[in-house]
Amino acid sequence: MSRTSPTASEGFIGKGRTPAKGSGPSAQGDPSSSRAAGPESGPAIVATPSLAASAAPLPEDDKQSHAAAPLPASVGDGAFGTLLEPMLRKICDDRLSAITWFRTEWQRGGALTGYAVFRDDADREQPVVIKMPVPPCERHWLVQLTPHDDVGPHVYAHGDMIGGYDLAWVVMERLPHGPLNSDWGGAEFDLLVDAVGRFYRAAADHAPVGEPVQRDWEHVLDVARQKVRQNTLPEQPRWTKALKKAQRKLKPWTERWLDRPIHHWRHGDLHLGNAMTRTEAPGGPAVLFDFANTRVGHWVEDAVYFEHIYWSRPQRLEGRKLCKAIARRRKELGLEVESDWAELAEVKRALLAMSTPTKLEHFGDPVHVIAALDVLERAVG
Q1: Is residue 86 classed exposed, middle or buried when 0-12, 13-18 and 19+ CB atoms within 10 A define those classes?
Q2: Is 303 in contact with 326 (CB distance < 8 Å)?
Q3: No. of helices (H) and no. of strands (E), the chain
Q4: For burial by CB atoms within 10 Å, which of 16, 61, 151, 361 has the most?
Q5: What is the pLDDT of residue 362?
Q6: Mean pLDDT of 153-163
Q7: E strand intervals along the chain
Q8: Taking the domains of the chain in order of start, what are their residue ranges?
Q9: Which helix (H) or strand (E) holds 239?
Q10: For residue 314, cis peptide bond before it (omega within 30 degrees of 0)
Q11: Residues 272-283: pLDDT tens digits?
């Protein structure tokens, strides 16, 4: 991470719509650290959201867009928020209050989140969240989506460096309610389906760039079989048999998957924990966040991932078919829905179920493991 001569005039202050009245406290997002190379310094730019959006381009290197960058040793691991806070407040033209910094259990590499108040263009105090550093991809989409009502949180200020350090940062609306959960009485699923549909519509205005995630499924299968041998999994003999049958199906599965259209933007981490609202439960609409994994691909990837979380808890869905619901919402919004999307979803389900033994640290609950095995057995026949 490079260091240039310090200046307090680095960043962009975005003007635009004010969030719905009633914004209040709540944490949001998965703060993570990453940074793309940017200008060494420059005056603060006061801009409309559309102009501010152009100031947060995606790096040409797709890996750089999503990868985390370590903090410089001179800044330190825990105190950099305190050290850089005066500079950040000055960049924001002293419209930002004192910041309460904290670190959540999932944050690594010294990345921090802070709570503060930002004085908007109407001279009203708005509760905000400060994230620093943020991946270039996440900053890009937060800024790009700000002009679109109710898609992402409103960004008040953002920049790609601070105090001479290459540290991307954002000051954004602090959403008051959520994340979505059972307090919404089942409506949480409908709200998230609607929210991701609106995200797809907003993202469709942006040309697809970068590379989709392409996994080596032969290697994934090898690792899955190895994990089954090494770990005590529920229904271990069934897993061994199902993975052996998957070997015979793998070539047509992977050929079909590699042939999928990849000109869609997908959120990359679609689940209830990445959406909040500005109104109390069971109200909506929902607002998405955590765009660190957003990239080109196919919308079915989001849909099946969201669905698979409930393979072991189908009663939570109360009969909802999440993939079908997202396909229907896309159609309602005038977005492309391929005639063979259901076939593609079946392939993705099979590949995701097959990979379950490789992700036991995240999806190792015995009930989920058995549910994934049931999905795989249906796919292999």
Answers
A1: exposed
A2: yes
A3: 12, 11
A4: 151
A5: 82
A6: 90
A7: 12-14, 45-47, 100-102, 112-119, 125-132, 155-159, 169-173, 264-266, 275-277, 286-288, 295-297
A8: 12-173, 182-380
A9: helix 236-258
A10: no
A11: 999 999 999 999
Please state the pTM of the whole predicted model. Answer: 0.85
For 208-239, the pLDDT digits (tens) are 888 888 899 999 999 999 999 998 888 999 99
The SS3 assignment for 7 reads coil
In this structure, are strands 125-132 and 169-173 parallel, antiparallel, or unpaired? Answer: antiparallel
Looking at the DSSP assignment, which residues form a beta bridge with residue 46?
Answer: 13
Q: What angle do CA 126, 13, 58 make, to 5 degrees?
A: 115
Q: Which of 19-23, 35-39, 150-154 has the lowest mean pLDDT?
A: 35-39
**CATH 3.30.379.10 for domain 182-380:** no
Indicate left, alpha or beta for 249 from its phi (over 0: left) and psi (-120 to 50: alpha): alpha
DSSP state of 3: B
* Nearby residues of 313 by Cβ (< 8 Å), 6 or more positions away: none
Spatial contact of 206 and 266, defined as CB atoms under 8 Å apart: no
| Strand partners of residue 172 | 129, 155
Q: Which of 150, 155, 154 is nearest to 197 (CA)?
A: 150
Q: Which residue has the tokens 């989140």?
A: 113
